[in-house]
Amino acid sequence: MSLRTLTLTIDPDVTLLINSKFSCDEYFCSIDGESSRLNLQTTLQRTFGQSVNTSDSALITKHNFLRNFCYHCQHGSRVTFQQRLESNSSQCPYFWAHQKDYCGPTKTITILGEDMSRVEKFKNWAVQQDPKTLGTSLSVNNFTDIIALTVWRSARPDASSLEVNRGEFSYMCYCTSSQKFGMQCDGYTSFLIPFRYLVDPFIVLFSRIITAAFMIYFVYIPLLVHDFKKQYRTKGFVKFVFNHLLDLKTSAILYMIIGMLIGGFDEIITLIIDDNYGGQKYYTIFTGIQCIFTGMSFGTLLVLWINLVDNANNMVAQKRLSMKCKIILVLCYIMVVFTVIALIVVFSLVEHHRFVAFVLDTMMSGSLAFLFTIFSIGFTIYGTRMYKVISSTSNIKPWKLKFIKFMMAAVLVFLVFSLWLVVVSVQTVTGNLLGLFITLFVLHICSWIMTVMSFVISFLLFDKEKFLAAQTYLHLFKRKKALNNQELGYKLLTEDGL
Description:
The protein is mainly alpha-helical. It has helices at about 5-10, 15-20, 25-30, 35-50, 55-70, 80-85, 120-130, 130-135, 145-155, 160-165, 185-235, 235-245, 250-270, 275-315, 325-350, 355-390, 400-430, 435-460, 465-495; strands at about 110, 170-175, 180.
């Protein structure tokens, strides 16, 4: 793709500019004191017609379009114009200059976007450096302010290098080798960013479906069959369903499965929503809901452990929850409902996508880091107390007990997850402080940690005897159904006289 072909794709007015008498030197390098707004309006009206839009946003768009045209397109004075900028950019005070190799050492095209939102950080820095000249109310949405900032910037030959050093990617780069747009022409643009948004969502979505299927087959179905065999014939279908869903082990695995499936929606959102902050907003909500269900799953298990220890200490052989455990469980569910309502309210009332993502990320990260730290403490305390109860009647080693292995794995994963949520909070508050890689994959790493959590909880709840019994029962059920179908078919054939 040639430079001219690319520019023609961006704006059809290029042909009109090439055929007109428009002078880049006169427009960007004139220092005769003429008003920049009047200069631009006059140029636009002379080149594009008298009906051109003169609002701030339209003027900024056209101004940046002319900037990109003059620097990249094959017009008559392109070479001399570029040489003038490279020798002394202050000769052209209305031109927002950039380093020649800003986008990368290979052949690239550096484009200033239609709006100036990308230069917000530079504007804030400039106002701090020279508030007397620029004032304190400079806006990137006001054309006159943008011109004033551009003129101030042209007097600083180090302005562009300062942007790069501070990680302010104020331009859009077109990488001719890979034919992709990006912040810079590097491995992120050519591989990591396309991988993150085009390939990785399918990988994560597929892994979540597989993980949910694994938990259903190896953990939930054996629990379901066990309860069905035990309660269905004696208590009836309705009471069986009610008791089955209220069982803490069943609730724990169901919460984890539901969370894993809901989390799959964030990958679908990534694929179908093109708007970065719109997609981020929905992605954050679904990831937050997945975290909530994961927390409910482990919270339910912790309540089960508390109940077991209390019953053992009180010498009570009953499966019903103590009043203390019921209160803890109800409070956990109230907190979950409150969190979901808070997410919905913030999502509904806040208009700006960036702010929504910021609020949700910070709120979710902080609360979940605290919650899983509490889980770490709770499972450690009650796991130790459970072992003391067992060791009082047996000399079994702790590492041979399944719940001790679960406790150690769960606490390790909880602490890693809590630390990573702190990283999420820091990255959300500071922007790009921890690097682009963290920005790209920060929430995905949270999802992978929760996938590890699902296998940890599956390890604890998997019962080999119940699994084999369920396989046998389902096999016999299929055989019985097949025999019944054969008998029915034989009966129908007999009745028809065959």
